[in-house]
Write a structure and sequence with these properties.
This protein is an alpha+beta fold. The protein is about 20% helix and about 20% strand. The strands form two sheets. Strands 1-2-3-4 form a four-stranded antiparallel beta sheet. Strands 5-6 form a two-stranded antiparallel sheet.
């Protein structure tokens, strides 16, 4: 035995089951939630998230829907994250709603210990940052087509 503590690496699906259980119980103050996008997804890849816009920001009073995709290398590699709801935010590509890792340090410096909950909470904090908090937002009910990574047109609007 080595003098260093050995870390137990939890298998991907067990880790995702833990995250699902935690997501179903509800998180903190209820302004962030997440769960499986499709209950029949046995690989547990496709997730949906919700962030309620923080007070005293241009996001206040709005509900933001996100899609999270946990690839086969999750949690070793970060999930891909895309806002379905139109949003104006420095780390989000306006055309497709993708959260750009190069503009969102949590994704570019991803660590295995991070969770989907951590990711959503950090996005909410990012909404409150000085560079984002006062950005004008797309009008509510503003429904426009957006192309997803598979080339399909996705309709989205603020609910």
């Amino acid at each position: 035995m080595s003098s260093e503590e050995e870390k137990v690496v939890v298998p991907r699906n067990f880790r995702l089951l833990e995250e699902l259980e935690r997501g179903e119980k509800g998180i903190g103050d209820g302004t962030v939630s997440y769960g499986m996008d499709d209950a029949d997804d046995i690989l547990m890849q496709s997730w949906t998230g919700t962030i309620i816009g923080p007070h005293s920001t241009s996001y206040e009073g709005k509900i933001f829907q996100l899609k999270l995709f946990c690839g086969k290398d999750y949690p070793q590699s970060p999930p891909t994250v895309r806002f379905q709801t139109r949003i104006n935010m420095a780390c989000v590509t306006p055309d497709n709603g993708v959260v750009e890792p190069s503009h969102f340090p949590m994704l570019s410096n991803w660590r295995r210990e991070y969770t989907l909950e951590d990711l959503l909470m950090q996005l909410k904090k990012e909404m409150m940052s000085p560079q984002n908090r006062k950005l004008s937002q797309p009008l509510e009910g503003n429904e426009e087509g957006r192309t997803d990574p598979k080339g399909l047109v996705v309709k989205c609007c603020v609910m």
